[in-house]
Amino acid sequence: MTVSELNNNLPQGLPEFESGWVWLAGAGPGDPGLLTLHAVNGLRQADVVVYDALVDKSILDWVKPGTITDYAGKRGGKPSPKQRDITLKLIDYARAGKRVLRLKGGDPFVFGRGGEEALGLVEAGVPFRIIPGVTAGIGGLAYAGIPATHRDCNQAVTFLTGHDQTGLTPDAVNWDGIAKGSPVIVMYMAMKHLETIAAKLVACGRSVDEPVGIVCNASLAGQQVLETTLGRCSEEAKVAGIKPPAIVCVGEVVRLREGLDWLGAMSGKVLNSDPLGLRPEGRSADAG
Ligand code: SAH
């Protein structure tokens, strides 16, 4: 099968994957339906796919026969290849004339070290394309029925990582500034230090009763959602056995899940049309 035949199945305007190029693509949070057309176009033409731990394996079913799938997983706590080695692997494949799809979980430029890998390619003179993906902090929350912004709740949202390069709670984060200035805080990689982080936010003025939503394995078959509060989230996450990968969302938007849990509704949950309690009392939902 040739590349041009494959392209015939795709809408006009999707590029040909040239030999010796690296496409650095986001795979979204897990559900293959959240791949972009550019990512699928890359999967269908790639000679090699270098993928991460957080890329759902079912996504690899989209490759053409004979494609090499090369796991470059990096998972906290387990031995993992060094970032530099992954970049060198991409360079070697590209120099060998392969079409290299570098597939990363979520969006490659959101806490994904995509920038570092791309800069390695620039340094080596390897041509590349960036394919953004649906990031877990937006798409993963949406699968739990939690919007990252909602007009009645927040005009700003902050995305932050719960640990830095050393594995500790990031010192570089201005916790006081974020606690005071960001009505919604969406945290990646925050489970390990959740207790410390929640305590920091409370110490900086957030209420212990503020809603917190934790979405584990978002958009995958094992998706779990814990609705809790800032004061109780760490303890309740332990009790519920919530493990990474998980996204933690702090803020009033979490209440909207009561009305927007569309996956729950598909299995019979009755949704609340006024989750924020904004409608005047006694007024029915369809009153003018
Ligand atoms: N580039 C990725 C983030 C990589 S950092 C993105 O844009 O989504 C890894 C962290 O992402 C995990 O620790 C977790 O906080 C989050 N994450 C990724 N996939 C997830 C999923 N399916 N469900 C919940 N959290 C996820």
Molecular structure report:
With 288 residues, this protein is α/β, with parallel strands linked by helices. It has two domains: 132 residues, Cobalt-precorrin-4 Transmethylase, domain 1, CATH 3.40.1010.10; 130 residues, Tetrapyrrole methylase, C-terminal domain (Methyltransferase, Cobalt-precorrin-4 Transmethylase, Domain 2), CATH 3.30.950. 28% of the residues lie in helices and 17% in strands. It is built from ten helices and ten strands. The strands form two sheets. Strands 3-2-4-1-5 form a five-stranded parallel beta sheet, sandwiched between helices. Strand 8 and strand 9 form a beta hairpin. Helix 3 crosses helix 4. The site of S-adenosyl-L-homocysteine (SAH) has 25 residues, from helix 5, strand 8 and strand 10.
The largest pleated sheet is described as:
5 strands, parallel
**Strand proportion:** 15-25%
Q: What are the distinct ligands in this entry?
A: S-adenosyl-L-homocysteine
CATH class of the largest domain: Alpha Beta
Domain count: 2
Largest sheet, order of strands side by side?
Answer: 3-2-4-1-5
CATH superfamily of the largest domain: Tetrapyrrole methylase, N-terminal domain
